[in-house]
């Protein structure tokens, strides 16, 4: 090998090694105070291997591969043992590099430590601090307004939720617009997509920089926007194929010729499970050549879905939504949500919740269709 080729090889190896070294997230932390013997800091997240490190002489360093759209969550052993509330918090990284977390007082909790070194991580932390202050201020104002009411009063809680929506949505919008060219903007938009009005969601999505529209959270928002346009009465359902508990493919088009009640649910959803006895009665009443129920679980844990199916013994077909059909075709924000589909495969109506009163719009429509 001549000198020129050797130099080229060495340069290539050097570039590859540099690239590999730079493709890590390094989190360097300092912690001051008495740890009470609880010295570990843990990291986990989707696409991130769960790991832990020791705090030594008030310092710790975590090194993890940088994976696009993967958000590491941190928590400390001290917080789990000595503090109340959820200890884990996300570090919204926007690329490989070094992030610094400096906790001046261990009793305040690791999530209270200022973050620097990453624009998106610092911006997200600022967003969370503002959101918590907003919630605290609203709760104090509502409690003062309803001082004579118990904490579980329905009017008090309804007012609180209304004020949260009125102030949180503009707060989210302002943050996304300010950070439209940063990963934090896309991350927050994706995180709160289900509570934003469709017009606000589309407007904010359109504000995102092209690079941020290519991120995972923004792609989820794009899917929801498509679902919002598809989930309209009179629109034909785009065919989809999902798997049954036996891992057999079930296509929605196989139900053509029947009225289909699509029930979106989840194993962790109390109201979903509470509605099943009533739905079994409904199914017994209308099942036949002209009517079917299709249960679509939005569970991310397949084993939890299968275990719940064993408990519930539901007599209608069940599939697991592994392709985000609930979002991309039906824009489901909460479960239980039901759609009634015509024999031609078109959406007739939507209903959030399946109660026991039998006076929902879908129940009324079924009585009208089948005369019973």
From TrEMBL:
GO terms for biological process, alphabetical: cytochrome complex assembly
Keywords: Cytochrome c-type biogenesis, Disulfide bond, Isomerase, Redox-active center, Signal
UniProt protein name: Thiol-disulfide isomerase or thioredoxin
Pfam families membership: AhpC-TSA (PF00578)
Region forming the signal peptide: 1-21
Domain Thioredoxin stretches: 231-371
Keyword hit for Disulfide bond: yes
InterPro entries on file: AhpC/TSA, Thioredoxin-like_sf, Thioredoxin_CS, Thioredoxin_domain, Thioredoxin_ResA/DsbE_sf
Tagged with keyword Ubl conjugation: no
GO molecular function, one term: isomerase activity
UniProt subcellular location: Cell envelope
Principal subcellular localization: other
Stored PROSITE patterns: THIOREDOXIN_1 (PS00194), THIOREDOXIN_2 (PS51352)
One CC-aspect GO term: cell envelope
């Amino acid at each position: 090998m001549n000198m020129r080729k050797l130099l080229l090889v060495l340069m290539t190896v050097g570039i590859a090694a540099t690239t590999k070294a730079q493709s890590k997230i390094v989190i360097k932390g300092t912690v001051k105070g008495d740890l009470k013997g609880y010295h570990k800091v843990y990291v986990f997240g989707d696409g991130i291997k769960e790991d832990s490190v020791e705090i030594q002489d008030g310092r710790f360093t975590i090194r993890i591969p940088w994976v696009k759209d993967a958000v590491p969550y941190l928590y400390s052993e001290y917080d789990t043992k000595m503090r109340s509330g959820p200890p884990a918090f996300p570090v919204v990284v926007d690329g490989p590099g070094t992030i610094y977390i400096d906790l001046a007082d261990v009793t305040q909790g690791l999530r209270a430590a200022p973050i620097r070194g990453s624009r998106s991580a610092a911006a997200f932390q600022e967003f969370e601090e503002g959101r918590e202050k907003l919630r605290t201020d609203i709760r104090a104002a509502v409690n003062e307004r309803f001082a004579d009411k118990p904490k579980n009063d329905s009017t008090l809680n309804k007012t609180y939720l209304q004020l949260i929506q009125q102030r949180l949505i503009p707060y989210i919008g302002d943050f996304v617009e300010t950070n439209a060219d940063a990963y934090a903007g896309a991350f927050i938009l994706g995180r709160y997509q289900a509570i934003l009005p469709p017009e606000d969601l589309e407007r904010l999505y359109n504000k995102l920089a092209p690079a941020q529209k290519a991120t995972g959270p923004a792609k989820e928002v794009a899917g929801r926007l498509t679902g919002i346009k598809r989930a309209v009465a009179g629109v034909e359902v785009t065919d989809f194929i999902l798997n049954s508990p036996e891992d057999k493919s079930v296509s929605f088009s196989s139900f053509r010729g029947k009225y289909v009640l699509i029930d979106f649910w989840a194993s962790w959803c109390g109201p979903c499970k509470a509605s099943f006895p009533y739905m079994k009665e409904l199914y017994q009443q209308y099942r036949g050549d002209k009517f079917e129920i299709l249960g679509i679980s939005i569970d991310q844990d397949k084993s939890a879905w299968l275990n719940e199916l064993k408990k519930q013994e539901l007599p209608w077909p069940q599939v697991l939504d592994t392709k985000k059909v609930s979002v991309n075709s039906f824009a489901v924000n909460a479960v239980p949500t039901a759609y009634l589909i015509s024999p031609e495969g078109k959406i007739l109506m939507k209903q959030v919740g399946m109660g026991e009163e039998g006076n929902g719009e879908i129940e009324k429509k079924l009585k009208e269709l089948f005369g019973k």
